[in-house]
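Archive entry. Fields below.
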Amino acid sequence: MYDIKNLLIPKTLDEAINYLNNENTLVIAGGSDILIELRHGKHNNKTLVSISKLDELRGIEIIDGNIHIGPLSTFTEVAEDKLINKHIPILAEAVKTIGGPQLRNMGTIGGNICNGITSADSASSLFVLDAILEITGPNGVRHLPITDFYVWVGEVKLEQGEILTKIIIKEENYKNYYGSYYKYAKRNAMDIAIQGCSVLVQIDNDIIKDVKIGYGVGGPIPMRCFEAEKSIKGKVISKETLEQFGDAVLKEVNPRTSWKATKEFRQHLANELAQRMLTKSIERAGGKI
Amino acid sequence: MKISVTINGKLKELDINPHLSLTDMLRNLGLKSVKKGCEVGECGACTVLVDGKAITSCTYLAVWAEGKSITTVEGLTKENGELSDIQKAFIEEAAVQCGFCTPGFIMTACEIIADKKKYTRDELKVGISGNLCRCTGYENILNAIEKAIKNNE
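PREDICTED_STRUCTURE:
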């Protein structure tokens, strides 16, 4: 038995928005976080609005070159999707590291973002892909870059009545980019990232034309290191550039000490993973160090 | 809440308390192969198939089963009582010690076997990474799944 105050299962998006336009309501998608938190005594004063019947929020398609991901797509669906694997394999790589097989069959990519947790494995990849979030609410539809979506731990820019209805990756943000994601955790499965790092790179022969780096546990919310990116753009690919990149990210990440790992260890990981993921991404782009 | 759900091949109309997990619902129906382990989606003992996909039924609302097809270990046995290939493989390879995790492993294995893909040992380890066996019998479990995959070729 779950300690649920009330459960509503809307059949249309409008109905869902109507239900959510009340205080003390909470969207439940795959349930792999909320149902566990209910067992721990959280959310028991809230009305849960299950969006499980809103099939328009499922599926992955390409429209005018842009990839549209329905937020109710499960991690397994994202990991196995042909379009994702062809155009943005970094996202498939990231979601494969989440939990275990059963969780990936239930948990959704929208839920992974909307719960506002920094260690979400899909978040850093969506940050480097400059994902645009389509949010629908009582006042219509608005679009927000994912880099502006997070406010604080567990808090995202969703107003009362609003719901994430699409994740859009624009063609200009994935075409000719090559990337890689690494999750550092104590176990290879069923664990939460101590540090997660995504890098996307575009190269022109031996020059770094563009680079993007995102962290899962670089701070209280997922983040990019824009200054570090700028510092090596246009530079020649070399060991020195890699080291410079690794040092530059340390000026921006601000992880904390928790029972899982110390701040210093997470900083060390940020430095090391920046270099390793950049190397891997450059190699995937056909370049050499 | 009224739901219609197919359980082990049989269509049922049920009146379900929305507070119920799928684990509770199935156990209340007498399907005791669905074990209550951690109840927070970490041990895999409550794994069942929902439309062919393995999920931990402890982190799944019973009312979400509406219109879906659920399979538990009870649904694998043939009408005449004969065990399925995967169950036989677990016995032949001694992939059971205390047995508490076994139904969960078998249901996870069912999804893997149904894929009809070729798996390396390492890929199979990833495949069963959502199930815990505290008697540490993973080697025999992997042997059993490999055997069942071979028999299904």
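CURATOR_NOTE: The mean pLDDT of chain B is 96.
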